Fold:
Amino acid sequence: MVLLGIVPSISICCLFQTRPTTTRHLCLKFRLKPSLSRSITSMALTNSTKRKLPILLFDIMDTLVRDPFYQDVPAFFGMSLKQLIDCKHPTAWVEFEKGFIDEMELARKFFKDGRDFDLEGLKNCMRNGYWYIDGIEQLLLALKQNNYEMHAFTNYPVWYQLIEEKLKLSKYLSWTFCSCTYGKRKPDTEFFTEVLRHLKVDPADCIFVDDRQKNVEASIEVGIKGVHFKNANLLQEELSLMGIDISADEDQ
Structure:
Protein backbone atom coordinates (compact mmCIF):
# COMPACT_ATOMS: atom_id res chain seq x y z
CA MET A 1 0.00 0.00 0.00
CA VAL A 2 1.33 3.42 -0.94
CA LEU A 3 0.94 6.12 1.69
CA LEU A 4 0.53 9.80 0.94
CA GLY A 5 3.64 11.88 1.53
CA ILE A 6 5.99 8.86 1.51
CA VAL A 7 8.22 8.36 -1.48
CA PRO A 8 8.63 4.61 -2.04
CA SER A 9 11.95 3.05 -2.90
CA ILE A 10 13.08 -0.12 -4.66
CA SER A 11 15.98 -2.27 -3.41
CA ILE A 12 17.95 -4.58 -5.70
CA CYS A 13 20.38 -7.04 -4.12
CA CYS A 14 23.09 -8.78 -6.12
CA LEU A 15 25.73 -11.42 -5.33
CA PHE A 16 29.31 -10.79 -6.35
CA GLN A 17 32.56 -12.59 -5.65
CA THR A 18 35.57 -10.68 -4.21
CA ARG A 19 37.86 -13.69 -3.86
CA PRO A 20 37.52 -17.23 -5.09
CA THR A 21 36.20 -18.28 -1.67
CA THR A 22 34.34 -15.16 -0.59
CA THR A 23 30.91 -14.02 -1.73
CA ARG A 24 29.45 -10.65 -0.72
CA HIS A 25 26.04 -9.06 -1.13
CA LEU A 26 25.72 -5.73 -2.87
CA CYS A 27 22.40 -3.98 -2.11
CA LEU A 28 21.45 -1.06 -4.34
CA LYS A 29 18.54 1.13 -3.26
CA PHE A 30 16.72 3.34 -5.77
CA ARG A 31 14.30 6.07 -4.71
CA LEU A 32 11.38 6.80 -7.05
CA LYS A 33 10.96 10.34 -8.30
CA PRO A 34 8.24 12.29 -6.43
CA SER A 35 6.17 12.64 -9.61
CA LEU A 36 6.14 8.88 -10.13
CA SER A 37 5.31 8.36 -6.46
CA ARG A 38 2.32 10.70 -6.73
CA SER A 39 1.18 8.89 -9.85
CA ILE A 40 1.27 5.53 -8.10
CA THR A 41 -0.56 6.97 -5.10
CA SER A 42 -3.23 8.51 -7.31
CA MET A 43 -3.77 5.22 -9.13
CA ALA A 44 -4.14 3.37 -5.84
CA LEU A 45 -6.69 5.84 -4.50
CA THR A 46 -8.64 5.88 -7.75
CA ASN A 47 -8.94 2.13 -7.79
CA SER A 48 -10.03 1.91 -4.15
CA THR A 49 -12.47 4.86 -4.03
CA LYS A 50 -14.05 5.02 -7.47
CA ARG A 51 -16.98 7.47 -7.42
CA LYS A 52 -20.31 6.28 -8.74
CA LEU A 53 -21.84 8.61 -11.30
CA PRO A 54 -24.12 10.34 -12.01
CA ILE A 55 -24.70 12.31 -8.83
CA LEU A 56 -28.36 13.01 -8.06
CA LEU A 57 -29.44 16.49 -6.91
CA PHE A 58 -32.94 16.87 -5.49
CA ASP A 59 -35.08 19.87 -4.83
CA ILE A 60 -36.93 19.27 -1.55
CA MET A 61 -40.23 21.15 -1.33
CA ASP A 62 -43.01 19.59 -3.43
CA THR A 63 -40.43 17.27 -4.98
CA LEU A 64 -39.53 15.04 -2.03
CA VAL A 65 -41.50 16.68 0.77
CA ARG A 66 -44.93 18.31 0.80
CA ASP A 67 -44.75 22.11 1.11
CA PRO A 68 -47.26 23.32 3.74
CA PHE A 69 -47.06 26.95 2.62
CA TYR A 70 -49.88 26.84 0.09
CA GLN A 71 -52.59 25.30 2.28
CA ASP A 72 -51.58 24.98 5.93
CA VAL A 73 -49.95 28.38 6.41
CA PRO A 74 -52.86 30.45 5.02
CA ALA A 75 -55.21 28.40 7.22
CA PHE A 76 -52.99 29.10 10.23
CA PHE A 77 -53.43 32.84 9.65
CA GLY A 78 -57.15 32.48 8.84
CA MET A 79 -56.62 33.68 5.27
CA SER A 80 -56.77 32.47 1.71
CA LEU A 81 -53.49 32.02 -0.13
CA LYS A 82 -54.19 35.16 -2.16
CA GLN A 83 -54.86 37.19 0.98
CA LEU A 84 -51.64 35.95 2.56
CA ILE A 85 -49.58 36.83 -0.49
CA ASP A 86 -51.16 40.27 -0.70
CA CYS A 87 -50.34 41.22 2.90
CA LYS A 88 -47.00 39.52 3.52
CA HIS A 89 -43.72 41.38 3.01
CA PRO A 90 -42.56 40.97 -0.61
CA THR A 91 -38.94 39.99 0.17
CA ALA A 92 -38.80 38.83 3.80
CA TRP A 93 -39.16 35.12 3.07
CA VAL A 94 -36.59 35.25 0.26
CA GLU A 95 -34.15 37.00 2.62
CA PHE A 96 -34.80 34.28 5.19
CA GLU A 97 -34.19 31.58 2.57
CA LYS A 98 -30.87 33.17 1.66
CA GLY A 99 -29.81 33.36 5.31
CA PHE A 100 -29.70 37.17 5.21
CA ILE A 101 -32.07 37.46 8.20
CA ASP A 102 -32.80 35.17 11.15
CA GLU A 103 -36.23 33.94 12.24
CA MET A 104 -36.71 36.79 14.73
CA GLU A 105 -36.18 39.34 11.97
CA LEU A 106 -38.55 37.30 9.79
CA ALA A 107 -41.22 37.52 12.50
CA ARG A 108 -40.70 41.28 12.73
CA LYS A 109 -41.18 41.92 9.01
CA PHE A 110 -43.21 38.92 7.77
CA PHE A 111 -46.27 41.13 7.26
CA LYS A 112 -46.04 44.44 5.47
CA ASP A 113 -47.89 46.19 8.29
CA GLY A 114 -45.55 44.74 10.94
CA ARG A 115 -48.31 42.93 12.87
CA ASP A 116 -47.32 40.39 15.52
CA PHE A 117 -48.01 36.68 15.18
CA ASP A 118 -47.21 33.41 16.92
CA LEU A 119 -43.84 32.41 15.43
CA GLU A 120 -43.63 29.11 17.29
CA GLY A 121 -47.17 28.33 16.25
CA LEU A 122 -46.22 28.92 12.61
CA LYS A 123 -43.21 26.62 12.94
CA ASN A 124 -45.38 23.89 14.46
CA CYS A 125 -47.92 24.35 11.67
CA MET A 126 -45.21 23.83 9.07
CA ARG A 127 -43.64 20.91 10.93
CA ASN A 128 -47.01 19.16 11.05
CA GLY A 129 -47.46 19.72 7.32
CA TYR A 130 -44.20 18.07 6.23
CA TRP A 131 -44.47 14.56 4.88
CA TYR A 132 -42.97 12.56 2.04
CA ILE A 133 -44.57 12.91 -1.38
CA ASP A 134 -46.30 9.61 -2.26
CA GLY A 135 -43.80 6.99 -3.44
CA ILE A 136 -40.72 9.16 -2.85
CA GLU A 137 -39.33 7.46 0.22
CA GLN A 138 -39.36 4.07 -1.50
CA LEU A 139 -37.59 5.58 -4.51
CA LEU A 140 -34.93 7.19 -2.32
CA LEU A 141 -34.37 3.90 -0.51
CA ALA A 142 -33.87 2.05 -3.81
CA LEU A 143 -31.38 4.68 -5.00
CA LYS A 144 -29.49 4.49 -1.72
CA GLN A 145 -29.34 0.68 -1.91
CA ASN A 146 -27.76 1.10 -5.35
CA ASN A 147 -25.09 3.40 -3.88
CA TYR A 148 -25.99 6.62 -5.68
CA GLU A 149 -24.58 9.82 -4.23
CA MET A 150 -27.53 12.14 -3.46
CA HIS A 151 -27.70 15.75 -2.28
CA ALA A 152 -30.44 18.21 -1.40
CA PHE A 153 -30.36 21.26 -3.66
CA THR A 154 -33.06 23.47 -2.23
CA ASN A 155 -34.30 27.00 -1.71
CA TYR A 156 -35.10 26.87 2.00
CA PRO A 157 -34.22 28.65 5.23
CA VAL A 158 -32.68 27.15 8.33
CA TRP A 159 -36.08 25.58 8.99
CA TYR A 160 -34.92 22.70 6.81
CA GLN A 161 -33.85 21.35 10.21
CA LEU A 162 -37.55 20.96 11.08
CA ILE A 163 -37.92 18.69 8.05
CA GLU A 164 -34.89 16.68 9.09
CA GLU A 165 -36.14 16.31 12.67
CA LYS A 166 -39.46 14.92 11.47
CA LEU A 167 -38.61 12.89 8.36
CA LYS A 168 -34.91 12.01 8.85
CA LEU A 169 -34.23 12.75 5.19
CA SER A 170 -30.50 12.44 5.83
CA LYS A 171 -30.97 8.65 5.84
CA TYR A 172 -31.00 8.97 2.06
CA LEU A 173 -29.18 12.17 1.08
CA SER A 174 -27.00 14.96 2.38
CA TRP A 175 -28.36 18.45 3.10
CA THR A 176 -25.44 19.84 1.13
CA PHE A 177 -26.85 22.69 -0.95
CA CYS A 178 -29.31 24.87 0.94
CA SER A 179 -29.91 28.46 -0.09
CA CYS A 180 -29.60 29.62 3.53
CA THR A 181 -26.00 28.36 3.57
CA TYR A 182 -24.88 29.68 0.19
CA GLY A 183 -26.80 32.97 0.08
CA LYS A 184 -28.08 32.06 -3.39
CA ARG A 185 -31.36 30.69 -4.72
CA LYS A 186 -32.38 28.72 -7.76
CA PRO A 187 -32.74 29.51 -10.63
CA ASP A 188 -29.62 31.66 -10.20
CA THR A 189 -27.06 29.90 -12.40
CA GLU A 190 -24.31 30.93 -9.97
CA PHE A 191 -25.89 28.59 -7.43
CA PHE A 192 -25.63 25.74 -9.94
CA THR A 193 -22.01 26.48 -10.75
CA GLU A 194 -21.27 26.65 -7.01
CA VAL A 195 -22.69 23.13 -6.70
CA LEU A 196 -20.42 21.89 -9.49
CA ARG A 197 -17.36 23.50 -7.90
CA HIS A 198 -18.15 21.82 -4.60
CA LEU A 199 -18.74 18.38 -6.12
CA LYS A 200 -15.73 18.64 -8.47
CA VAL A 201 -17.54 16.92 -11.34
CA ASP A 202 -18.55 17.81 -14.87
CA PRO A 203 -22.12 19.10 -15.34
CA ALA A 204 -23.00 16.03 -17.43
CA ASP A 205 -22.20 13.85 -14.39
CA CYS A 206 -25.19 15.26 -12.46
CA ILE A 207 -28.95 14.84 -12.67
CA PHE A 208 -31.15 17.52 -11.09
CA VAL A 209 -34.81 16.97 -10.15
CA ASP A 210 -37.18 19.86 -9.35
CA ASP A 211 -40.93 20.53 -9.52
CA ARG A 212 -40.37 24.01 -10.97
CA GLN A 213 -39.70 24.13 -14.68
CA LYS A 214 -37.67 27.36 -14.49
CA ASN A 215 -35.19 25.69 -12.13
CA VAL A 216 -34.88 22.69 -14.45
CA GLU A 217 -34.23 25.04 -17.36
CA ALA A 218 -31.48 26.78 -15.36
CA SER A 219 -29.80 23.42 -14.69
CA ILE A 220 -29.86 22.56 -18.40
CA GLU A 221 -28.35 25.97 -19.17
CA VAL A 222 -25.21 25.05 -17.20
CA GLY A 223 -25.05 21.54 -18.68
CA ILE A 224 -26.69 19.55 -15.86
CA LYS A 225 -29.33 17.01 -16.91
CA GLY A 226 -32.67 18.26 -15.62
CA VAL A 227 -35.86 16.37 -14.78
CA HIS A 228 -39.15 18.17 -14.18
CA PHE A 229 -40.82 16.40 -11.26
CA LYS A 230 -44.52 15.56 -11.52
CA ASN A 231 -44.91 12.43 -9.40
CA ALA A 232 -42.79 9.57 -8.09
CA ASN A 233 -43.86 7.04 -10.73
CA LEU A 234 -42.97 9.33 -13.64
CA LEU A 235 -39.69 10.26 -11.96
CA GLN A 236 -38.77 6.60 -11.61
CA GLU A 237 -39.52 6.03 -15.30
CA GLU A 238 -37.45 9.04 -16.38
CA LEU A 239 -34.49 8.08 -14.20
CA SER A 240 -34.60 4.52 -15.55
CA LEU A 241 -34.53 5.85 -19.11
CA MET A 242 -31.42 7.83 -18.13
CA GLY A 243 -29.69 4.63 -17.03
CA ILE A 244 -30.27 4.91 -13.27
CA ASP A 245 -30.60 1.54 -11.53
CA ILE A 246 -33.69 1.63 -9.31
CA SER A 247 -33.98 -2.07 -8.57
CA ALA A 248 -34.82 -2.45 -4.88
CA ASP A 249 -33.54 -5.09 -2.46
CA GLU A 250 -36.70 -6.56 -0.98
CA ASP A 251 -34.78 -7.94 2.02
CA GLN A 252 -33.75 -4.50 3.31
User: Anything to note?
Assistant: Residues 74 and 119 are 14 Å apart (CA to CA). The chain has three domains: 9-48, 55-66+132-241, 68-128.
